[in-house]
Amino acid sequence: MTAREPRPSILDSTLLALALLLACGVLYALVARLALDGFPYSGDEYSLFLQGDLFAHGLLKAPAPAHAAWLRVDHVIIDDWVHSKYPPGAAALLALGFRAGVPWLVTPIEGVIALALVWLTIRFSLGRRPALIGLAVLGLAPLYAYQAASFYSHTTATMFLAFGFASVAAWSRSQRSWWLWLCGVSIGCAYLTRPIDAVLFGLAMIALRSRRALVLAAAGAAPLIALNFLYQKAQFGSLFLDGYHVYQPTFAALYGPTTALNPVLPSHIWNPTQLWNHLDIYRAFIVDWTVPGAVLLAIFGAFAIPSGHPARRLRTFSLALIATYVVALLPMISDVDDGARPRYLSITLIPVAFLAAAGFAPACEALVARFGPRVRTAVVALALIFAPAQLAAFLIGHIPSVWKREGLARSVERAGLRDAVVVIRAQHPSRYARNGGLFDRSVLYLSAPATTSGETVAAAFPGKAIWEAQEGDPWTLTRVR
Length: 481
Fold this sequence. Notes:
Blueprint: H1 14-35, H2 43-56, E1 62-63, E2 76-78, E3 81-84, H3 89-100, H4 106-126, H5 128-139, H6 142-147, H7 154-174, H8 178-191, H9 195-204, H10 211-236, H11 243-255, H12 272-287, H13 294-304, H14 312-328, H15 349-371, H16 373-415, E4 420-425, E5 443-446, H17 454-460, E6 465-470, E7 476-479
């Protein structure tokens, strides 16, 4: 008699993996629509949101209205034209959402696509069960889930670079050169979205020790990088002038020269405040924004893939990718802002998920050998429970801030204002003066300086009802004329 083959484990089930993938997508969409109200909370998000709306109307930029100095809004350039300071990649995909009437759904879809790509990469590199682990480690990471429910461009860049990661894995297995060209295309798409992320991904490819890999990837990326320079020419008047530099004078005027320091400076490496901020970002990434224990699993995984294994090259690339991002963070300014603390490390979630998938089995074996299978099961269960709990804890504190940022528009809507100008009286009025790129709405919000009187505004807008909005909970609306 032949020995009976062991029954397949449910952890090897493709159906379970697809169900988890679908559940993650539903989670991202629910958080985007119900928790975050489909609202671009931060200035970064609103700038991309505005640009996506302009793209949906077939416009690169729109003519600036009169009194532009009273209409400044965070991270939006208003000179002779109205346009975003950011590259076009994320906004171009948002435009599809605007055309479909669901812009808030674009980023959750991007999150699911990236998640599927990483799952397939791990499945073909390490097997079905590690792929399920990698899917959980990435998909349930609070940082990934929050970014996939917001309008930040990090998820768009992660989607493009997840394809690049998958291409490197496919090339490592097959040695077919066209995978490297496709990897370059994905890097080029990421460059159109978040140029620094694309450059760092390309630098990490040096660890592959293949000149051919670098040349073919560069060939795939070059046309899209060139397209970004052409976009800069069309938007800002020069191939070599990006929106960050064009926006810098406005940023300094709104928040002061200290706040508007160059975001990338060597001095940030040894500046005590920035050094502390960097350490806090690393801590937040490991403790607060990843599945508990994921980084520890990744350390196990870094040593678990033996020499000669087909995934060994991908392991080396993963370590290089993590190291590149960790080091590159040091010269970047890292003050607290409206976003997730470690969001600039978002791309590293991909290699962390891959390495954690490789390290799961040996880590579990070590737990079982020392403490028994029940403790192993309890630890895994707690990690899976605490990951969404961490996201929920963040949202509980964040949602009131979203309501506050939405408060002015809600108060104006409740008051039924039409054909009116609202002068915003707040500590940071530019965070609330959201008029869209076309300035064609019934209510116009002004972020005029505090010294600008209601009478001055009334003289500038004859025939309009003039109101002042005082920041508070709720906002107080007072008729001036």
